[in-house]
Amino acid sequence: MKKLLTISGLFLSLLVSAQGSPDYGGGLKFNLNPEGSKYMRFIAWNQVWLRSTDLNPGSMIGDESVSSYEDAGLRRLRLLAYAQISPRYMILTHIGINNQTFINGGASGSAGTGGYGAGKKPGIFFHDAWNEYAVVLPQESKPFSLSIGAGLHYYMGLSRMTMSSTLNYLTVDAPIFNWPLIENSDQFARQIGIFAKGKYNKFEYRFSINKPFSTNQTPTNVTDASIARAVDNNNVTQWSKAGYVEYQFFDKEANFLPYKVGTYLGTKKMFNIGAGFYNAPKGTQTSVNGVIEEHPINLFAGDVFLDMPIGAKEKKMAITAYSVFYNYNFGPNYLRNLGIMNESIADPSFSGSPALAGAGNLQPMIGTGNIWYTQAGVLLPSKSEKPKVRIQPFGAYTYKNFEALEKASSQFDLGANFFLDGHHAKITTQYSTRPVYTAVDKIDKYKGEFIIQLQIYL
Question: What keyword terms does UniProt attach to this protein (predicted)?
Answer without folding.
Answer: Signal
